[in-house]
Design a protein that fits this description.
Strand order of the largest sheet: 2-1-3-4-11-10-9-6-7
Number of strands: 11
CATH topology: Rossmann fold
Oligomer: single chain
CATH architecture: 3-Layer(aba) Sandwich
Number of domains: 1
Structural class: alpha/beta
Order of helices and strands: HEHEHEHEHEEEEEEEH
Helix content: 25-40%
CATH superfamily: Class I glutamine amidotransferase (GATase) domain
CATH class: Alpha Beta
Length: 242
């Protein structure tokens, strides 16, 4: 009788995972479903990169929207409901340095658990990661193949991704020495150890990522890929992991 009552309690009460049953073990909760907001402000962002990247995510079943603007209010509206904000490839060498109010919105988003994702081809301009998030990332103009998966990818979502990636056009890498301590590079160019895909800490609780291709002509817009989009799925999974 007592065992029956305990079983009924486990069925009808909200209890911590593992509290019912004999093992007492718990299962980590799944990562949140990605909801992506792509900043597409004309004059700073390449519309081809923003549009092709947005279309590629939507084609893979990921919830994605675009937003524009530079004010704190516009960024607040654009980030509402999102858990990843994306800075696509640049259209010019013009750099946007956010106002103090806009910086506060971006910083609060990241420190509250939102993720920042930098897309390749930011050459010659200050990224939001540097101007608003206190980093000193240095982007380099191209890849030097082979672009190979690193040992740090073992045991992560990247286990499902290709061992090497092609040097797609309109791409860039990060100088590994400019990444903050605690960063993880999942793909690098072996010749110079430039980071092609990485995750890095932002402040005390934030997390950002870099994906080196700008998605130009990615499906469904075009047919260029070579494993980069699968690697993007893996990067998003790692960005959102607890």
């Amino acid at each position: 009788m007592l065992r029956s009552l305990l079983g009924l309690a486990c069925m009808i009460l909200v209890v911590p995972i593992g509290a019912c049953g004999s093992g007492g073990s718990s299962t980590p909760p799944p990562p949140p479903v990605p909801v992506v907001a792509v900043w597409a402000e004309a004059g700073f962002i390449d519309p081809i990169s923003a549009n092709d990247f947005t279309a590629a995510l939507a084609n893979r079943g990921i919830a994605v929207t675009q937003f524009t603007g530079t004010t704190a209010a516009e960024w607040t509206a654009g980030l509402t409901g999102a858990n990843i904000v994306v800075e696509p490839g640049a259209s010019t060498n013009s750099s946007w340095v956010p106002s103090a109010a806009a910086q506060a919105v971006i910083q609060d988003f990241v420190q509250a658990g939102g993720r920042y994702l930098l897309i390749g081809n930011q050459i010659g301009r200050q990224t939001i990661a540097n101007s608003a998030l206190g980093l000193s990332l240095v982007e380099l103009p191209n890849f030097f193949p082979p672009i190979a998966k690193t040992a740090a990818a073992t045991g992560t979502a990247f286990d499902a991704c290709l061992a090497t990636l092609p040097a797609n056009s309109v791409a860039s890498s990060l100088d590994g020495s400019s990444l903050p301590p605690g960063s993880i590079t999942y793909y690098e160019t072996n010749q110079f150890q430039f980071s092609a895909i990485s995750i890095y800490p932002i402040g005390a609780a934030g997390r950002g990522g870099h994906w080196g291709w700008n998605a130009q002509d990615a499906p469904p817009t075009g047919a260029t890929d070579g494993g980069w989009l699968d690697a993007l799925d893996c990067l998003i999974a790692e960005l959102l992991a607890p």
